[in-house]
Amino acid sequence: MTKARKALDKYRRVVIKIGSALLVDRKTGLKKSWLDAMCADIAALRAKGVEVLVVSSGAIALGRTVLDLSAGALKLEESQAAAAVGQIVLARAWSESLSTHAIVAGQILLTLGDTEERRRYLNARATIGQLLRLGSVPIINENDTVATTEIRYGDNDRLAARVATMVGADLLVLLSDIDGLYTGPPHLDPNARLLETVAEITPDIEAMAGGAASELSRGGMRTKIDAGKIATTAGCAMIIASGKPEHPLAAVEAGGRSSWFAPAGSPVTARKTWIAGQLLPAGSLSIDAGAETALRSGKSLLPAGVRQVTGSFGRGDTIAIIGASGREIARGLAGYDAEEARQIAGKKSAEIAVILGYAGRAAMVHRDDLVMTAPSGGRLAEESDEGKGKLHA
Q1: How far is CA 217 from CA 21, 25, 80, 164, in A?
Q2: Which position among 168, 241, 275, 377 has the lowest Cβ density within 10 Å, counted as fewest Cβ atoms?
Q3: pTM of structure
Q4: What are the pLDDT digits (tens) for 46-76?
Q5: Angstrom distance (rounded) from CA 188 to CA 185
């Protein structure tokens, strides 16, 4: 049964993602009145006992305004320089505005590796958890001063989803210049309909995703749906809403237009949350229909069900598992490196010792190291609710 939407102040821990266009005017810089109103909304939530984290875009946009960089695409080194200047301006703005409500802001700059590598992921989570325990509001952004195209999120929608799963949040709010998910592009299709509730992210829902809608925003609806898959799989609800009103959270509470994505019925464990949220799998395994059925019933992936091995990965790396339809259905940790996996793909487990020369694992991916990431007419069936809402390994 789909979980019902509830008021924002009924959630325990909320992550709010704010797009660049909301915070920064291309000509005049920081939109201070909007920021002050946003902080008033945050203070109101906190006064009701809700823990709040903010994933804030805007560093590069602010920096390029301060540095008076020309309009259009920036070179990598220009983006990094703009970020270096903009982060200082952004952090100070958040700190000053929150301080009027007696709230202390803490800055966290993350790179892709901080959430893709397990040890760094746990360290970042511990730091954020301590800030929350001390009553601070963490202001989080990607560290654009050092990130390059190959090692970056590239959008704060997915970063916010990773942060939400990292800290066990039960709601993720994506604020931008888009007020929800429509059945088609509303600026092109006059019959496009807003979906106020999304019970499950299906292929049809994914097909509705569009492109970027703003010069200052790197992410479009596509990245928001990707974020939704990460968040809802971990048992975190998600809202897509417009941030254009001066009090955007209050507007959502008052019934403003938005789309609410229901969390999975059975959140995955803390370890599996990390696996499911990996953005850059090292490779993939394509499997047959029988193996897919076995995975959906909670079994491990055996070599016999693997039809193709793609990529170069080592044992323990995160890999995507591709179902008979050609779509990704799961993520897991490889039990073998890519070359060994190719040798035993399609073979019975009893043949592994003969083929490889040693008695390896019976499973290509063990069920304890695997999480389903796509539905099959139902909810994820994980074995426990371990780690929901807790900061632990």
Answers
A1: 7, 12, 17, 20
A2: 377
A3: 0.76
A4: 999 999 999 998 888 898 888 988 878 888 8
A5: 5
